Amino acid sequence: MKHTYLWAMVLLAGTTLSSCDQIWSARNVPDAVKVKFVESYPTIKQVDWEQLDSLYEAEFKISGRERKALFREDGTLISYTEEIEEQYLPKTVVAQLQKEFNRYKIEEVHRVQEDNATSFVVELEKGTQDIWLRYNEAGKLLEKSANSAKVLKQSASLLPLTNTEATAEDLGMADTRWELPAELREVSGISLLPDGSMACVQDEEGKIFLYDLEQKAITREIPFAGPGDYEGIAIAGEDAYIVRSDGTLFEVAGFMGRKPEIQVYEASFPATINIEGLAYDEEQNQLLLAPKGHDPKLKMQKAIYAFSLDSKKFQAEPVINISLEQVEPPKKGKKQKSDYDVLQPSSLEKHPTNNSLYLLDAVNNRLYAMTKDGKLSRTLELDESQLRQAEGLTFDQEGGMYIASEGGKKGIGVILKYTKGIN
């Protein structure tokens, strides 16, 4: 199907087939489409459906923001559209608009994901004249149309910031969702292995659980310690490392072998630290540790600590300091007991291609991108309806992102995959 046809249909403002409280009562929507929708958004109860020839468009809200997803009859998602702020347009697109359409006023901007490509649709206005322009990420004009129809409002998505401020964006839509077995209901850390399986730890048991993403089942359990509050896992070559909330590290050397060797490295962090994030920094051959809590000596800062894999010792001083003054106060999340609670990392990971660090914050429902000097370059809001308590984060070699969420006492632990990652 041609791009022109797809994005034009996505942006059409028409009359919906039905507006109802439960998506199951939507008429004329194929079961395959509804099943795919529910797999992606199991907590969404209200959605408007519109039929566009042989395609089906769902309009719904996440965190109070509107989205549109376009499906084929077999349930394949072929296009996803969301309204964004003008400031989130790529600089290449902004440059072209300033050069060729500087007398026009920007009315609306939409980001469209289609056929593994991202484009930006801009509505311009000058007097009574409206025009539509579609650009690719490089700033090349793909299409131009004198269409004055107004776009249905949607939400800001995961887009590059045009400055260094940590302005909150929205994480967007996951591509795949796994419901974890009961043993991983309290999943607290994940790490993707070269064979495509996921190494997982959970809060209560001293075991590494190997979860096969294709089989959707646990294939092996590797004990390394007794019961404890285990928070993160990192893989360095043939060895696995698990961090307990007090900062103690467990080395499981040759963890995939028949008889892994266990070594314990005691930490001496303050009792208020509560380490939850653990990441492997291959460049420096070290482990990075992120605390949910704080060290009172650091005042309005939180720190990233390091454990050298050469000396097998904790470094005395933090390797990264994060100023809390740069953190925008969350609109949602639990009531903060102190100023330190504005940032409470629950997971830490290093991106495989851009070397940035990423911090999950389960309490405040956020994901942060961070430079090596502690500057938060991006802030992304998490959807609590999909990620009840986001505790685990990992990437594949192409930058695809996986987030694991605990299920709580009655819920189910899940892993969500964002194929495009956050580039």
Structural features, described:
The protein is globular and about 70 Å long. It is mostly beta strands. The chain has three helices and 31 strands. 40% of the residues are buried. It has a nine-stranded antiparallel beta sheet, with helices on one face.
Question: Care to give the gist of this entry?
Answer:
The protein has 3 helices and 31 strands. It has 423 residues and is mainly beta.
Low-confidence stretches: 1-25, 147-167
Query: For the CA atoms, what is the radius of gyration?
Result: 23 Å
Q: Please work out how many helical segments DSSP would assign.
A: 3
- Strand order within the widest beta sheet: 1-2-3-4-5-6-7-8-9
Percent of residues in beta strands? 35-45%
The tally of strands reads: 31
**Helical coverage, percent range:** under 10%
State the end-to-end distance. Answer: 26 Å
